[in-house]
Design a protein that fits this description.
Helix content is about 40%, strand content about 20%. It has one domain (about 25-185): Glutaredoxin. By secondary structure, it is α/β, with parallel strands linked by helices. The chain is built from six helices and nine strands. The protein has helices at about 1-20, 35-45, 85-100, 115-125, 140-145, 170-180; strands at about 25, 55, 60-65, 75-80, 105-110, 130-135, 150, 155-160, 165. The strands form three sheets. It has a five-stranded mixed β-sheet, covered by helices on one side.
């Protein structure tokens, strides 16, 4: 009985730590980024987005460039079915889609999953209705590497001109930013 209680406490504490910290690929080994890391960070946080082209859930090719310029905003959402913090954040992303898709928001999900069945089941279970892509390479996902994603959930918000205007928006901050950018501040409280 004590062993079972201790297991439950351990699982709850682990879930809490993961929820607070995000799912991380690896800890940074140095406070000072290398020249290569600085160059990549400049590329990632510069004005223009970098296109991602990966397989979709039906095996078709999905490209971020198919949505940028055709929508007022595109949110690239990096996530995985095994990531507790991602699943905790997903209701906000779903709400953002429901509130702002008709106003010009498109979301493109980039999964860091390795198992197709887990990825597809999580899409359905969380109510994601937007385009999805994954090369099923986990942390080696080409899309995550292009944006130097070290922990998830993570996201990048791109305007109609292809400029990155925000990164790593979460919860109410995501909704408030979309309301401000799309002119629908009255929707946030609903």
């Amino acid at each position: 009985m004590i062993e079972m209680t201790m297991r439950k406490v351990f699982l709850i504490l682990t879930a809490t730590v993961l929820t607070l910290s995000g799912c991380q690929q690896k800890a940074k080994t140095s406070e000072t980024p290398s020249a290569a890391e600085q160059e990549l960070q400049e590329k990632v946080t510069g004005n223009q987005y970098t296109d991602i082209e990966l397989p979709g859930i039906q095996g078709q090719t999905v490209k971020v460039s198919d949505y940028v310029g055709k929508n007022r905003l595109v949110l690239i959402d990096f996530w995985a079915s095994w990531c507790g913090p991602c699943l905790h954040e997903m209701p906000f992303v779903v709400k953002a889609y429901e509130l702002y898709h008709k106003e010009g928001l498109e979301i493109v999900g980039v999964s860091l999953d390795k198992e197709r069945s887990s990825w597809v089941e999580a899409i359905s279970a969380t109510g994601q209705k937007w385009p999805q892509m994954s090369d099923l390479q986990g942390w080696n996902c080409k899309g995550a590497q292009l944006y130097d994603i070290q922990s998830i959930p993570a996201n990048v918000l791109i305007n109609e001109q292809g400029e990155i205007i925000a990164r790593d928006l979460r919860g109410d901050d995501l909704l408030a930013t979309l309301a401000r950018e799309l002119g629908g501040s009255d929707k946030v409280g609903n």
